[in-house]
Design a protein that fits this description.
This protein is of the alpha/beta class. The protein has a domain of 218 residues: 3-Layer(aba) Sandwich (Rossmann fold), CATH 3.40.50.720. Helix content is 30%, strand content 19%. It has a nine-stranded mixed beta sheet, sandwiched between helices. It has a two-stranded antiparallel ribbon with strand order 2-3. Strand 5, helix 4 and strand 6 form a beta-alpha-beta unit. Helix 1 packs across helix 3, helix 3 packs across helix 9 and helix 5 runs parallel beside helix 7. The chain binds NADP nicotinamide-adenine-dinucleotide phosphate. The site of NADP nicotinamide-adenine-dinucleotide phosphate has 29 residues, from helix 3, helix 5 and strand 10. Pfam families: NAD_binding_10 (PF13460). This is NAD(P)-binding domain-containing protein.
Amino acid sequence: MASRLSLISIPNLPTPARTFPKHPQQIPLFSLPPHSFHVNPSFNSRTISSSNGGSSPALHAVQEEVTTSSDSTSDSKTAPSSSSKVVLVIGGTGGVGQLVVASLLNRNIKARLLLRDPEKATTLFGEQDEEKLQVFKGDTRNADDLDPSIFEGVTHVICCTGTTAFPSKRWEGDNTPERVDWEGVRNLVSVLPSSLQRVVLVSSVGVTKFNELPWSIMNLFGVLKYKKMGEDILRNSGLSFTIIRPGRLTDGPYTSYDLNTLLKATAGQRRAVLIGQGDKLVGEVSRLVVAEACIQALDIECTEGKTFEVNSVEGEGPGSDQQKWRELFKAAQAQ
Ligand SMILES: NC(=O)c1ccc[n+]([C@@H]2O[C@H](COP(=O)([O-])OP(=O)(O)OC[C@H]3O[C@@H](n4cnc5c(N)ncnc54)[C@H](OP(=O)(O)O)[C@@H]3O)[C@@H](O)[C@H]2O)c1
C-alpha cells in the first residue's frame, strides 16, 4: 500500500540580487556546523556541511516511496547502483528537484548540483560524500556561471528549474519566467556537451495552448510561452533529450505560489501514473511521480527525443519499476 508522505518544507529563504563569481565554485559537502562554510585555498573550493547527518526530509520521502510501492518487484525497489552515471541536476533545491536528487542519492547514482545558494544543499541533503554529491554555485540566467568545468564527466542532465507563474517574492532580482524558463534554459542548452546521454527538461502541460483559455490566464506573465521556447531550443539542439510536462503539481514540498495547489494537495496517494502526448492531458501530478519520471527517462530508450505529459491519480503506481515505466511511455506513444 502507498503510505502518506511527511510534508517536506523548503526554507523560505530570500533571493536577494547578488553577484556571482565568474568561475564556478565546487562545494563538496563535509562536516562543519550547519550553514557555515569556508574557503579551502588548496582546492579553491568552499566546503559546507550540516549536522543532520543525511536524514533529510527529501531523502526520507524518497525512501518511503521506494519501500511502500507494493507493486514494484523487489529487484526494482532498490535500483541498481549506476556508478557510471553522473547526473547534473539544475533546480535541485526545488520541489521536484530535491526529490530527484534524493532519489539519485538513494540509488547510489552520483549527482552534481548547480545551485544559486549552495548552502541549501546542506539543509536538504545533509552530509554527503563528495563522491556522491558535488555542488556548484551558479545561476542559469548568467551565462558566465555556466563554466564548462561544471559539465566535465557529466553523463546526464535533469533540469527542473522554474519560478512562479505570477509575480511573487521569488521574482526578486528579475527571476521571472522569461529569465528562468527561457533565458536560463537557453543558456544551459547552449553550453551542454553533445556527448551527454540524455537531457531531461521539466516543462508544463499547456505550453502549446498558451493563447487559449484557461491556459491564457496561467500565461498572463508568459510562463507557458517561455517554457515552450525553452522546450523548443532543447528540441532543436541536437542533444539527446526528453521533455516531461507535468500537470498541476501536488505533494510536498509546497513551494508553489498557487494557494489552490496547497489546499488541494494530498500527500502520497497519487501514485498511479498517466502519460500522454500532444498536450492533451489535463490534471494533477505528484511531485514524487514527476521526479521518478525524470529519472526513469534517463534510461528508457523510447523516451529519447520525445515529449510526454505526466499526471497521477490515486492508486498504486509503477513505483521505481523500470519495466512498468517503459510500458507507460510506450503506451503513450501508441495512442
Ligand atoms: N507548480 C505547478 O503546479 C507546476 C505545474 C507544471 C509545471 N511546473 C514546473 O515544474 C518544475 C518544477 O516545479 P517545482 O514547483 O517543483 O519547482 P520549484 O520548487 O519552484 O523549484 C524551482 C527550482 O529552480 C531553481 N531556480 C530558480 N531560478 C533559478 C536560476 N535563475 N538559476 C538556477 N536555478 C534557479 C530554484 O532554485 P532556488 O532554490 O535558488 O530558488 C529551485 O531549485 C518547474 O519548472 C515548474 O515551473 C510547475
